[in-house]
């Protein structure tokens, strides 16, 4: 099964610091935040995962819909270089020098008890198959079905 991937969501200062310290510094990097159409600059923000929008780290004066432009996507504020955020138009390409951070959801690791039950179930199926095979063999030897 392929893992689910999406633009990174940041729900704490620790996550923000971790992602920013991956070497982003002064590059515009897209994150997984977006804004409802028609919302005021500081309202209607969401994470692509549906997680609660309860942590923000806006650069001074952000979000601002700069010069009346609809800025409904989230990126690190490259002009600050400190790990703060900027709202930007979702059509912005940042002149090709930006990027994005992707998170992956990994498949859950089965608990040991689950694996034990799975193994016990397989052993039981093998035992049932052997017993059925033995009964069929005995019936064939006796000439019955």
Search tags:
single chain; 145 residues; alpha+beta; Mannose-Binding Protein A, Chain A; five-stranded mixed beta sheet; 2 helices; 27% helix
Question: Which ranges are low-confidence, i.e. pLDDT below 50, for 5 or more consecutive residues?
Answer: none
Proportion of beta-strand residues: 15-25%
Order of helices and strands: EHEEEEEEH
- The end-to-end distance, rounded to whole angstroms, is 43 Å
Query: Radius of gyration, rounded?
Result: 28 Å
Helix/strand class: alpha+beta
Shape: elongated
Question: How are the secondary structure elements laid out?
Answer:
Layout: E1 4-7, H1 13-20, E2 29-35, E3 45-47, E4 73-76, E5 85-88, E6 99-100, E7 102-105, H2 112-142
Parallel strand pairs: 2-6
Antiparallel strand pairs: 1-7, 2-3, 2-4, 4-5
Provide a quick synopsis of the model.
This protein has 145 residues and is an alpha+beta fold.
Structural account:
By secondary structure, the protein is α+β, with helices and mostly antiparallel strands. It has 2 domains: 4-105, Mannose-Binding Protein A, Chain A (Roll), CATH 3.10.100.10; 111-145. It is 27% helix and 19% strand. It is built from 2 helices and 7 strands; from the N terminus they run βαββββββα. The chain has helices at 13-20, 112-142, and strands spanning 4-7, 29-35, 45-47, 73-76, 85-88, 99-100, 102-105. Strands 2, 3, 4, 5 and 6 form a 5-stranded mixed sheet that branches. Strands 1-7 form a two-stranded antiparallel ribbon. Strand 4 and strand 5 form a beta hairpin. The longest helix has 31 residues, at 112-142. It is elongated. The two termini are 43 Å apart. The model has no long low-confidence stretch (mean pLDDT 79).
């Amino acid at each position: 099964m392929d893992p689910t991937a999406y633009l990174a969501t940041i729900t704490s200062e620790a996550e923000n610091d971790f992602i920013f310290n991956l070497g982003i510094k002064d590059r515009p990097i897209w994150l997984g935040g977006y804004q409802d159409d028609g919302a005021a600059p500081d309202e209607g923000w969401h994470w692509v995962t549906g997680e609660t929008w309860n942590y923000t780290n806006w650069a001074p004066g952000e979000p601002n819909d700069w010069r009346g432009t609809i800025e409904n996507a989230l990126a690190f504020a490259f002009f600050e270089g400190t790990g703060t955020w900027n709202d930007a138009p979702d059509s912005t390409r940042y002149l090709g020098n930006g990027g994005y951070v992707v998170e992956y959801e990994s498949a859950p690791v089965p608990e040991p008890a689950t694996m034990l039950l799975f193994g016990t179930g397989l052993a039981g199926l093998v035992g049932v198959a052997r017993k059925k095979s033995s009964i069929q063999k005995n019936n064939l030897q006796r000439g019955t079905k």
